[in-house]
Design brief:
Layout: H1 3-22, E1 29-40, E2 48-58, E3 63-76, E4 89-104, E5 109-126, E6 130-149, E7 152-163, E8 165-177
Antiparallel strand pairs: 1-2, 1-8, 2-3, 3-4, 4-5, 5-6, 6-7, 7-8
């Protein structure tokens, strides 16, 4: 089974679990999705957009455990390689698990910080030279702000993923709390 199929299977399982749990009567579960801009710390690669899907469980009012899938994007290679006509891209996606600490603010706002691990898969394609895959497990961390009224909310955050090179993602999304 290749990594992409494994990731797809894990995402489907997480989604089904999150929906099942969200429909239960407990109020500690949440699910969300977001999209934003990804910037890699490598001058030979252009920035791209990324997407994310996540689910979490609040153990207390302040502390949660969150897991999800993050596609950091497909970064265009803007520097030609010897033996290549130029171009190509680097795709990075993976699963993350993080501890989250949040603090309530007035008027339905809260701030949070998170830290955990990112299990990533990277595919590099270069015309004339072929493609290769790489994967690993590295640190991820971030912070953000939530605004919520009732079960629905808006979430904005900055995250850094270490996937050989540092990749920063700034995203905005929706969150549903049950």
């Amino acid at each position: 089974m290749d990594v992409k199929r494994l990731i797809t299977a894990v995402i489907v399982c997480l989604g089904v679990t999150a929906i099942s749990v969200a429909s239960a009567s407990q109020s500690n579960w949440y699910v969300g999705a977001g999209t934003g801009s990804s910037e890699v710390d490598e001058s030979a690669l252009d920035d791209d957009s990324g997407t994310k899907f996540y689910a979490g469980y609040h153990f207390t009012d302040r502390y949660a455990l969150e897991g999800g899938y993050t596609d950091l994007g497909s970064f265009d290679i803007n520097t030609p390689f010897p033996g290549s006509p130029g171009g190509g891209d680097v795709e990075v996606d993976g699963l993350q698990v993080a501890g989250v600490a949040s603090f309530s603010l007035p008027n339905n706002f809260s701030i949070f910080g998170k830290a955990g691990v990112y299990m990533w898969d990277q595919e590099v394609s270069i015309p004339g030279l072929g493609s290769f895959d790489d994967d690993g497990t590295d640190v991820m961390y971030g912070f953000g702000v939530n605004y919520g009224a009732g079960n629905w909310g808006i979430r904005g955050e900055w995250e850094r993923f270490d996937a050989d090179d540092d990749v920063d993602m700034i995203s905005v999304g929706v969150i549903y709390r049950r």
